[in-house]
Amino acid sequence: AALGIFVVVFPIYHPSETVAPRDAAIDGSRVELGDGVSIHYYESGKGKPVLLIHGFSSWSYTWKDTIPALSERYRVLAPDLPGFGFSDKPSDFGYDYEAFAGELLKFLDACGVKGKVSLVGNSMGGGIAMRFALDHPERVDKLVLVDSAGIAHKGNLMKMVFTAPVLNVFFQSVNSPAATKGALNLCCFYDSSRITPEKGEMYFKPLRTKGALAAAAATIGRNSFSVPPEEIEKIKVPTLIVWGEKDRLISPTNATVLHRMITGSEMVMIPKCGHMPQEEKPTVFNKVLLEFLDSKSSR
Predict the structure, then answer these.
(1) CB of 42 within 8 A of CB of 28?
(2) Over the range 120-134, which residues count as b (16 or more CB within 10 Å of their CB) and which as e?
(3) Does residue 250 contact residue 153 with C-beta atoms inside 8 Å?
(4) How far apart are CA 124 and CA 186, in angstroms?
(5) Which of 4-18, 69-83, 119-133, 193-207 is predicted with the least confidence, judged by mean pLDDT?
(6) Helix, strand, coil fractions of the chain, as percent rounded to 5
(7) Helix (H, G, I), strand (E, B) or coil at 31
(8) Its pTM surpasses 0.85
(9) Terminus of the chain with fewer CB atoms < 10 Å: N or C?
């Protein structure tokens, strides 16, 4: 009983969300979309546009080692999706793949990107990238799926953390950079030495912004995190599938399934790597990514 009271009362005196997203970001840029949503993003370089799409409970920080490598020859745009990072977290947003894809189209237009763009999506961002490619094929040059959602996979502890009534608020209240670092080690990285204290702090900060918990719960509640197989098979743009061989969150077997479903796709498996190759094996990942983006389309 005492424990139950503590779980309920503690968040009241130790609120988890203490700062507005627009006030929390320490760098980057912002753009207002036509629907009133403000998006936080990073931009660098000139040339053909490349859009980097982060995964669930992540933000554009995940591309910090990718942006410099790409920006030498591409215009790189890395936004925080609505509800994540330091973008606005509106309560009336859809928080499903279609809504995210639609908002990314508005983001590109607001940034003056009118033609085709290459999409690079990690985890949930890969599922959103597929949805974007299906809904707006005329705007997509190439598609890169990195340890991507899209094929149905088992749920995990993260779902309970963000959706269990009362417990979700409690878990958020007792969260810390160290706990966030531990969560990354549990589900996202194979080599724990890559999870620095700075990484724990950087992933922790956005979770303290107002609306973060509700947005995460809505995203989990409104998504199966899969794209119908018959739709995936309709993807016709040049596609690269990159996967960490030791991914514990989304099985590497899903890479083979996607490779089989997307005609003409290429697949690269990165050894001794978990769910986020762009952070755990950035040198290898950037080399593979640039080789694909630099190649001429065979279609």
Answers:
(1) yes
(2) bbbbbbbbbbbbbbb
(3) yes
(4) 18
(5) 4-18
(6) 45, 15, 40
(7) strand
(8) yes
(9) N
